[in-house]
Amino acid sequence: MKVLKFGGTSVGKPERMQSVSQLITADNDQKIVVLSALSGTTNSLVEISQSLSEGKKEQAKQQIDKLESHYRTFCNDLVKKEAGRANAKAIVDEHFEFLNIILKISFNEALNKDILAQGELLSTRLFCVYLEEAGIPAVLLPALDFMSIDEYEEPEIPKIKIKLANLISQHKGQHIFITQGYICRNARGEVDNLKRGGSDYSASLIGAAIQADEVQIWTDIDGMHNNDPRVVKKTFPIDQLSFDEAAELAYFGAKILHPASIWPAQHFNIPVKLLNTMQPEAKGTIITEMPNGNGVKAIAAKDGIIAIKIKSSRMLLAYGFLRKIFEIFEKYRTPIDMITTSEVAVSITIDNQQYLDQILKELQPFGTVELDYHQTIVSIVGNEVAATPSIITKLFDAIEEIPLRMISYGGSRHNISILINGQFKEKTLQVLNKGLFGLE
């Protein structure tokens, strides 16, 4: 069995959804198809939820009506027969009735999660209506019936495995199963989600749960590129990556893949393919356990970084200093991306400032605290890059005119990361493209 995930742009227009139906019926393999919400829907739902949280109900009503109009038009173009249109209308009626009812309800976080789930629920149900009209047998497996997270927001793979196997076993002989990405139930049984980009995560978790032959992530780009094509003119897709290389790239800014989606596939050694819905004939990128040779594979950039420097003359003699610093970030569940130390200071970076004020307050007793906002981490990723002198030489020759804030070297053999002010991001990516790949 395979798992095929299609992102928002892959199902964002009726003709795209119709193309997806052709892709999933191209062979007779048994498959679970994971769909994101239609492109733009989650952003619209976030805006609706934001308006409700601020008590702006008239504004929320206008946003709901606008989104509903989009779905009415979408359905008219998606299905043509009377029965199909009636089914599609009933689905849209149901979900937008819910969104209109919540205008009369006091807003809370649980309601917010219900609002955000509507996009995936709509896309999968409407896709099933289209498949039925097209005469393609398929079964809808509601993600809320099997996808769950524990009290620490971690997926419960053993439970997912059992529940999913039971659901599939009820449909002997079926080859195509449709389910939602992103959404799940939490430890309280409430509707929740796997955070933004979580449809990739859903696909990988499902792949792990069913021990899939492979997981396919279908997007609007032909695989992982060696650099950001939005910034650099000349880039190329990478044929093969190891799980370690892909994880580094995803975490440090490659947008094509959600960072969390690597570890379930890696843990169960399930190949992941990154493919292009718009160019299904393109080879794309395959991610497997073993690397395909040494050298630089790609460059990724992660924006919105905050650098925090804690300077203390007591550090030299302070046993357990770093442990105490890290415990503060652990307390507020804030991951650290990079770290450098000296005898009198430690610098770290974070990309989540939700608890920044509390963290800074608890850091004050340790010494002087300095902040640098609007930083960018640029990562050079590839097998053994940190252990190859020629690569290091080319890297620093290329960025000799770029002011560096921090360097992370030696933490991984597959990654060298530098921290720069965000204003130098584009120039850095461009000079590295030339210096490491010979591309202007």
Automatic annotation (TrEMBL):
Keywords: Amino-acid biosynthesis, ATP-binding, Kinase, Nucleotide-binding, Transferase. InterPro entries: AceGlu_kinase-like_sf, ACT-like_dom_sf, ACT_Aspartokinase, Asp/Glu/Uridylate_kinase, Asp_kin_monofn, Asp_kinase, AsparK_Bifunc_asparK/hSer_DH, Aspartate_kinase_CS. Belongs to the aspartokinase family. ATP binds at residues 5-8, 219-220, 230. Its EC number is 2.7.2.4. SUPFAM superfamilies: ACT-like (SSF55021), Carbamate kinase-like (SSF53633). GO terms for molecular function: aspartate kinase activity; ATP binding. One of its GO terms (cellular component) is cytosol. Pathway: Amino-acid biosynthesis; L-methionine biosynthesis via de novo pathway; L-homoserine from L-aspartate: step 1/3; Amino-acid biosynthesis; L-threonine biosynthesis; L-threonine from L-aspartate: step 1/5; Amino-acid biosynthesis; L-lysine biosynthesis via DAP pathway; (S)-tetrahydrodipicolinate from L-aspartate: step 1/4. Residues 378-434 form the Aspartokinase ACT domain. Residues 2-276 form the Aspartate/glutamate/uridylate kinase domain. It is an enzyme of class 2 (transferase). Substrate binds at residues 42, 120. GO terms for biological process: homoserine biosynthetic process; lysine biosynthetic process via diaminopimelate; threonine biosynthetic process. It catalyses: L-aspartate + ATP = 4-phospho-L-aspartate + ADP. This is Aspartokinase.
